[in-house]
Design a protein that fits this description.
By secondary structure, the protein is an alpha+beta fold. The protein has 2 domains: 354 residues, Collagenase (Catalytic Domain), CATH 3.40.390.10; 200 residues, Neutral endopeptidase, domain 2, CATH 1.10.1380. 54% of the residues lie in helices and 7% in strands. The protein contains 27 helices and 11 strands. The strands form 4 sheets. A 4-stranded mixed sheet has the order 2-3-5-4. It has a 3-stranded mixed sheet with strand order 6-8-7, covered by helices on one side. Strand 2 and strand 3 form a beta hairpin. Helix 21 packs across helix 24. It is globular, with a radius of gyration of 26 Å. The N terminus is likely disordered.
Length: 673
């Protein structure tokens, strides 16, 4: 055993928690998590989650704590055990185990990172300092984009499906370049926004000082000014919910005319792309403003801007000074997190982020039983049948739209557990003694993999989440529903319990994702994923009237301070919660058939369905995190994702004998599906 490995094991043993060999068990209906003193007809969330809220204070390294978050944390401990074993080395390791193990070992070697200090960053900033004019940004920005794989540096460049031809992948240019979570942070004039901007400016100054910028104080003001101009030119999150506002397919000549000061020939040559004849520019107005900034801001200002954004993007992978500064602003100031997560947890997250399917292969082998896949596939099929049944029954949708909706439903691809084919990471060079280099090489690999799709047919088998992820999603362009193995575990999906809470919990989530194909965003895309209006005008009008009922309801709910839900932002998720829960209930009843179910734990089967539905959403959140979520999160807080939904479901009122007019029994319930 090498001294480094010995130190690694000792460091792991010193943590409060140790790597898990298997996940702890919490049932999907947990009676201990309830508060039976609460009236379920007055506050069903408190009734279902009150005990959980008391028993689960927010850990000091978290911005919030929820059932999803707790399972994510447990998954991370299991992954820690996998990675620690792989990091020990030995000739018996598979190539996958070697990559993830050595990546993790390099991340855990903090003394090596301390010795390097700012060195890895400074060597990259030399290229910025060598710029002679703003025209040379066309060759500098591609290198920055390849090694950050995001929109942090001026704008985003990548690949996505062509909205007009979903079988093809084309180049996309997107707005970006902001260091704060949303454009509104730069433009709002309330005291809290001003305070955050002041602290952000201090953070920018700190990063510039670490980057050895000549004028960090003046530079921070410059960065904030430039980002404010970019923010002012960016669409709001609500505006971005309309896909038609994001589809502007331009020829190379049209793109060049939009930003004459940025040579796209040089940019594309720098990322080694040929034959790109057209690009979708999601926000042309943003790029018009960028053209103005290229003229109005000096080369020195652009260098300062790049110094900061390169440092900000790389800070989590550098020495402790960078890591702490990044955490203090992004987590402590913005979200109220008291303590930095332990090193092992950050390293686990980064392996999952950089080599996710390699790590996921090891995770699935240990956790995901074939029967779980079979049972959840059956559940999904029954919920799809329930949706088809509901579409056929709708009184507000015409026959032609119904026919197209059923065709789209039939075309949805269900991805359960993990990909059919694992991603090949063999081109990624992983060195046990080069963490920063490992991150750079893995990031560039992924960036080039994404760019390599441009001009090629779409691969519909690809996943957008790694298998250990505790989450799920619907992609309107791919027209697929994705449920990673990580989300199909107790207490979310529980093979040890009866079907009632499983349908209430996982079934409602499956239904939720399915309805996204037909909400105010998803309905804009047809069965193949093309941006196409396949609804009649009357059907669209009727749909909008019904979701407006949900918007009006949720707009009354208070998040924190005097901030209420922005229901124009959350309505897609709110309507999906409502429709998904009803679909799961209908599918469960069909699955039960003529069987006579008995009460358990003092609850009827119907009550168990709804308690199972509620308990996935148990959560505690810091006020700071709620404020960020109010601006950026398209989901409502957990309390309203439960109370706001059951109040519209007569099935719930009957299950708990709620009297008409009770808070959880609206006199005029909203109904879409």
């Amino acid at each position: 055993m090498t001294p480094f490995v010995a130190a690694l094991i000792l460091a792991a043993a010193a943590q409060e928690k140790h790597p898990l060999q298997e996940l702890p068990y919490t049932p999907s209906l947990d009676v201990k998590a309830m508060d039976k003193s609460a009236d379920p007809c007055a506050d069903f969330y408190q009734y279902s989650c009150g005990g959980w809220l008391r028993q689960n204070p927010i850990p000091p390294d978290q911005a919030s704590w929820s059932v999803y978050g707790k399972l994510t944390d447990e998954n991370q401990q299991l992954l820690w055990g996998i990675l620690e074993t792989a990091a020990r080395g030995g000739g018996e390791r598979t190539p996958v185990q070697q990559k993830i193990g050595d990546f993790f070992a390099s991340c855990m070697d903090e003394p090596a990172l301390e010795r390097l200090g700012a060195g890895p960053l400074l060597s990259q900033l030399v290229r910025v300092d060598a710029l002679h004019n703003t025209g040379e940004l066309a060759t500098m920005l591609p290198l920055a984009h390849l090694s950050t794989a995001g929109k942090e540096v001026v704008f985003g460049f990548g690949s996505d499906q062509d909205f007009g031809d979903a079988t093809q992948v084309i180049a996309f240019l997107d707005a970006g370049g902001l260091g704060l979570p949303d454009r509104d942070y730069y433009l709002k004039e309330d005291d809290r926004s001003k305070e955050i901007r002041a602290k952000y400016q201090q953070y920018v100054e700190q990063m510039l000082r670490f980057s050895r910028d000549r004028d960090p104080i003046g530079g921070a003001k410059t960065v904030l000014k430039m980002e404010t101009e970019l923010a002012r030119a960016s669409l709001t999150r609500v505006e971005r919910r309309d896909p038609y506002k994001l589809y502007h397919k331009l020829s190379r000549a049209e793109l060049q005319a939009l930003t004459p000061s940025l040579s796209w020939d040089r940019y594309l040559a720098a990322v080694k792309l040929t034959g790109v004849d057209s690009v979708n520019v999601t926000e042309p107005g943003f790029f018009k403003s960028l053209e103005g900034l290229l003229h109005s801001e000096s080369l020195a200002h652009w260098k300062t801007y790049l110094h900061f954004h390169l440092a900000n993007a790389r800070a989590p992978f550098l020495s402790s000074a960078f890591v702490k500064a990044h955490f203090d602003f992004h987590s402590k100031v913005l979200r109220g997190v008291a303590e930095m997560p332990p090193r092992w947890k950050r390293c686990v997250r980064n392996v999952d982020r950089m080599l996710g399917e390699a790590l996921g292969e090891e995770f699935v082998r240990r956790t995901f039983a074939p029967k779980t896949k079979e049972d959840t596939q059956k559940m999904t099929r029954l919920i799809e049948e329930a949706m088809q049944q509901e579409i056929q029954r709708l009184d507000w949708m015409g026959p032609q739209t119904k026919q197209a909706a059923i065709a789209k439903l039939a075309a949805i691809r269900n991805k359960i557990g993990y990909p059919d084919k694992w991603r090949d990471y063999s081109p990624v060079v992983v060195k046990r003694d080069d963490y920063f280099g490992n991150v750079e090489r893995a990031t560039v690999f992924e960036s080039r993999r994404q760019l390599g799709k441009i001009g090629k047919p779409l691969d519909r088998t690809e996943w957008g989440m790694t298998p250990p992820t505790v989450n799920a999603y619907y992609n309107p362009q791919m027209n697929d529903v994705n449920f990673p193995a990580g989300v199909l575990q107790p207490p979310l999906y529980d093979p040890r319990l009866d079907d009632a809470p499983n349908y209430g919990n996982t079934g409602s989530t499956i239904g939720h994702e399915l309805t996204h194909g037909f909400d105010d965003e998803g309905r804009q895309f047809d069965a193949e994923g093309n941006l196409k209006d396949w609804w009649s005008k009357d059907d669209a009008k009727n749909f909008e009237e019904r979701i407006q009922c949900v918007r009006d309801q949720f707009a009354q709910y208070l998040i924190v301070d005097d901030i209420k839900i922005n229901s124009k932002l959350t309505s897609g998720e709110d309507v999906a919660d409502l429709g998904g829960t009803l679909l799961a209930y209908i599918a469960w009843k069909k699955d039960v058939g003529d069987r006579q179910l008995k009460a358990q734990d003092g609850f009827t089967p119907d009550q168990r369905f709804f308690i199972g539905f509620a308990q996935w959403a148990c959560e505690n959140q810091r006020p700071e995190n709620l404020r960020v979520s109010a601006v950026t999160n398209p989901h409502s807080p957990g309390k309203y994702r439960i109370n706001g939904i059951v109040a519209n479901l007569p099935e719930f009122g009957r299950a708990f004998s709620c009297k008409a007019g009770a808070p959880m029994a609206r006199e005029k319930p909203c109904k879409v599906w």
